[in-house]
Design goal:
Blueprint: H1 2-22, E1 24-30, E2 33-39, E3 44-48, E4 55-60, E5 66-72, E6 77-82, E7 87-91, E8 98-103, E9 108-114, E10 119-124, E11 129-133, E12 140-145, E13 153-157, E14 162-169, E15 172-178, E16 185-190, E17 197-203, E18 208-213, E19 218-222, E20 229-234, E21 240-247, E22 250-256, H2 258-282
Antiparallel strand pairs: 1-22, 2-3, 2-21, 3-4, 5-6, 6-7, 7-8, 9-10, 10-11, 11-12, 13-14, 14-15, 15-16, 17-18, 18-19, 19-20
Helix pairs in contact: 1-2
């Protein structure tokens, strides 16, 4: 009798194991958002602690000179723009390795991604205009003239649909908002007390605009109403020219569906029954 139940158990177990395998689903698990920066001097990708400002080397950037970063937070894709080759680059946030998407066709010093409309914005610094960049081909479409010279960085607040830009020029670091339909810029104010701000990124979780001073190597926060800047800390890399906020890693963990859980309970119940039967036989 025990062998009879044993044979049934093993056959049922094999069937249930197959059911468990096919009933598994995968739940995405992501790390919290991380600020990434491109350092000109070392031509490297770094991660930056938004609470202390401390920078950590991630990996070497495989391209000539990355002066713009942006993250598609919907797909967790980090993009960069090379001002020498005029290419759009897809960058690994875990290694810094890059793959060319295509030629943009102009010099782009600032980028930002709007996750609400899946739009990658950039600044064509040749004619000081806002552009849209195709993330599949790299090609750009003009939006309109900004009205400010040398906007070298962009950041997008998806909570309020506000595009910010910074213009480090003639001992000023002018913070502006930019109309995403027309490209027209509006002055917010001068970020007084800092040297050359060339990096911007926005934290939607805390409604914080972060910036980097390329000359002093400091990470700072900027008040979006008054343009007042406050130092967070020393990055440890003195030529951080671009910022973007992205997830460091993205991976899946397997979980069981409702039927998978039912099957698991069934196999555990039969296993318990077999153990009780065996004890009775031995007794």
């Amino acid at each position: 009798m025990l062998n009879f139940f044993g044979n049934i158990y093993y056959k049922f177990r094999n069937i249930v194991l197959l059911l468990l395998l096919f009933s598994m689903t995968f739940v995405p698990i992501a790390q919290s958002q991380t600020i990434f920066g491109a350092d000109d001097a070392s031509n490297s990708l770094i991660s930056i602690d938004q609470f202390t400002g401390a920078g950590t080397f991630v990996g070497n950037l495989d391209f000539t000179r990355i002066e713009a970063l942006a993250c598609d937070t919907n797909s967790n894709t980090l993009f960069g723009a090379d001002i020498i080759t005029e290419e759009l680059i897809r960058i690994s946030a875990s290694s810094g390795n890059g793959t060319a998407v295509g030629v943009i066709g102009t010099v782009v010093f600032g980028m930002a991604y709007d996750p609400n409309t899946d739009t990658l914005f950039g600044v064509d610094t040749v004619v000081d205009q806002l552009i849209k960049i195709n993330t599949e081909t790299g090609e750009f479409t003009p939006v309109g003239l900004i009205g400010f010279r040398n906007i070298l960085s962009l950041a997008f607040d998806s909570n309020t649909n506000t595009l910010y830009g910074v213009n480090p020029d003639l001992d000023e670091n002018l913070l502006v908002t930019i109309d995403t339909d027309t490209g027209e810029g509006t002055l917010v104010g001068d970020i007084v007390g800092f040297e050359i701000i060339t990096g911007l990124t926005f934290d939607e979780d805390t409604n914080t605009l972060f910036a980097s001073d390329e000359l002093t190597g400091e990470l700072l926060t900027v008040d979006t109403d008054t343009a007042e800047g406050s130092v967070v800390g020393d990055i440890g890399f003195e030529t951080v020219s671009a910022l973007a906020r992205c997830r460091a890693r993205f991976f899946n963990i397997p979980t069981l569906s409702e039927w998978g859980l039912i099957a698991m309970v069934g196999i555990l119940g039969i296993a318990g029954f077999m153990v009780l039967r065996r004890r009775k036989v031995i007794a």
